[in-house]
């Protein structure tokens, strides 16, 4: 399990700043979650202004 990013992502980087384990980074204008390090805490979900990042 890991959080995943939808097409609604606008690359703002809010999730990147919110993630406590550095599992999400913005690459080429879109957020990418590293499934191996994501602990499913949900912090990115709360930080995302477009609801683009959600639990799988
Ligand atoms: S759910 Fe938590 S650990 Fe996973 S990417 Fe989001 S903020 Fe990071
Ligand atoms: S907070 Fe949402 S819109 Fe912003 S980079 Fe992360 S997933 Fe994309």
The gist of it:
The chain is an alpha+beta fold and 56 residues long.
Top keywords for this entry?
56 residues, alpha+beta, Alpha-Beta Plaits, two-stranded antiparallel sheet, 4 strands, 25% strand, globular, binds iron/sulfur cluster
Write structural notes for this entry:
By secondary structure, the protein is an alpha+beta fold. It has one domain: Alpha-Beta Plaits, CATH 3.30.70.20. The chain is built from two helices and four strands. β2 and β3 form a beta hairpin. The longest helix has 5 residues. The chain is globular and about 25 Å long. The termini are close together. The model has no long low-confidence stretch (mean pLDDT 97). Bound molecules: iron/sulfur cluster (2 copies). The site of one iron/sulfur cluster has 14 residues, from α2. One iron/sulfur cluster binds next to α2.
String of helices and strands: EHEEHE
Biggest beta sheet summary: 2 strands, antiparallel
Distance between the termini: 6 Å
pLDDT under 50 segments (min length 5)?
Answer: none
At CATH level 2, the architecture is 2-Layer Sandwich
Number of helices: 2
The CATH topology is: Alpha-Beta Plaits
SSE topology sketch:
Layout: E1 3-5, H1 14-18, E2 24-27, E3 30-33, H2 43-47, E4 53-55
Antiparallel strand pairs: 1-4, 2-3
The chain binds iron/sulfur cluster (2 copies).
